[in-house]
């Protein structure tokens, strides 16, 4: 930078003047100038040797000026700590020494309280006796020796006694100087315990009550000590303006009237409520710690509670982050929460099987399941299954288990399963031991440890009429007959039915139901309920009041059609109050139509509400009235009864009176 447009010289560097550089080096603490010829680029490090000391100043070394300016020795630092009493015990280190970690006991200014703090804490506030304020009344004797200090715990010394004659110049209310009162004949004060003369005027000191427009003052005569409570009745408001009180209810000593209302406004963070009592704050700053998880998922936000998203985690790792096999590397610095790098190499983790691995290296501890196709036995060891993925363990072949149960008589009828056949249950299959007299099986629930019960045989048999007629005499005499000897082999063959397609379909459905664990008694698709079933009691009620039943059926049919065709999933119909018999008819008809029915209120205003549900309520093919018409048509005409002649004077008819019908319990008529 010394010469503009230097002349070209064959022996010099291009664009160089050929003189010494002389520039100051970039290292701040290097005092030497660059001593090489004019050159491009930054100046090289200084080659001069200088003597430099370590961080603690105890050791010195001769090093090049351009080398690192800081080095550490192996000695203990030994520098004085912030407390000025102890020395640093760390090995030679950079920067300031850490604060002293020893704990000492400090006393407050008034000497009534103690606390343990780190050595050197609040030393600048010490007055030679104490180090902090306990916020209690000082209570030390004043210089007069008669009164105590009434100030909050403070550094020494205490103030002068406020009642000393040389300090008090006016009367207690402050309106009249004492010099004027002395002229009027008042006694001159000698010591602090002498009473202060009163001027006799109204005190007039402002009280803590009142409002901003009208300040209340003490109405007593000039006096010493605290003023009396306010005797006025004006209303004053709390500091937040929510409540008000009469002035005479407050004592003069009260600082501020505060209501008990808690502030419901949101704080600045938008998450928490203020909850301050009688709040007058306008900003509502949140003083809680945020505590939400950062983007790394490992650390939590330590900032004061705030709006919006938290900042990214500031912690950083200076170790290399590699994949499991070590082929892919992320070099430091690595931000906290960074996932391991993706690797396209084959996974090298140990696996449970010896099959070839086809998935790539991954950071998850658990490898994906092995999908290599193998041959495995089913759970019941019935057959060897092929093309089974390696990770599958419990395989069912779909066949019956057929393993011998604990009873030793029956085999398991469950589909191929895992574990024992019956763990906490007993075998309930019918006993197959032949009976003593008829040779039919016992058919009682399995009883391996007890003899067969003596019950009558319920098996149905076909017996030749001629053979049984020959033994009829024996039966009439009370003798027993061996029935098995009366049946011929030909009749036995005729008694056994051949399986047809329906039998095969039932057997296949039974196996599917056992495999899918469907109960035999369940009817999920309403296959068994092909038509409506009306009870005999309902039919009898319909014959007595056919118009009422037909009207109810029409309304239910219209309600079901409306809910199935409309947009709503439910529709309800409320009936007026009616007697018990009519309510029972509605409940029974609702069951046939698949409608929900509930009774409400108490007698005599008890009524029924029905609700049709889309997809659940149906309209039966045959109504109750049509069923009754068909039954009437199929019945033969009743015979004409012959009436007996009755005695007119008796007044009683020849027909017998019908028996009184027993009350029917309405099981649907219950409180909701």
Question: What attributes does this structure have?
Answer:
single chain; 672 residues; little secondary structure; Ribosomal Protein S8, Chain: A, domain 1; three-stranded antiparallel β-sheet; two-stranded antiparallel sheet; 9 helices; 14% helix; disordered C terminus
The succession of helices and strands, N to C, reads: EEEEHEEEEEEEEHHHHHHEHEEH
Mean pLDDT over all positions: 79
Distance between the termini: 103 Å
Using the coordinates above, name the CATH class of the domain at 536-627. Alpha Beta
Task: Outline the low-pLDDT stretches.
Answer: 525-531, 641-672
CATH superfamily name of the domain at 536-627? Answer: R3H-like domain
Q: Please name the CATH architecture of the domain at 536-627.
A: 2-Layer Sandwich
- The CATH topology of the domain at 536-627 is Ribosomal Protein S8, Chain: A, domain 1
| Shape type | flat
Q: Whole-number radius of gyration?
A: 54 Å
Number of strands: 15
Q: Helical percent range?
A: 10-25%
| Helix/strand/pairing category | little secondary structure
- The percent range for strand residues is 5-15%
Largest sheet: 3 strands, antiparallel
Strand order of the largest sheet: 13-15-14
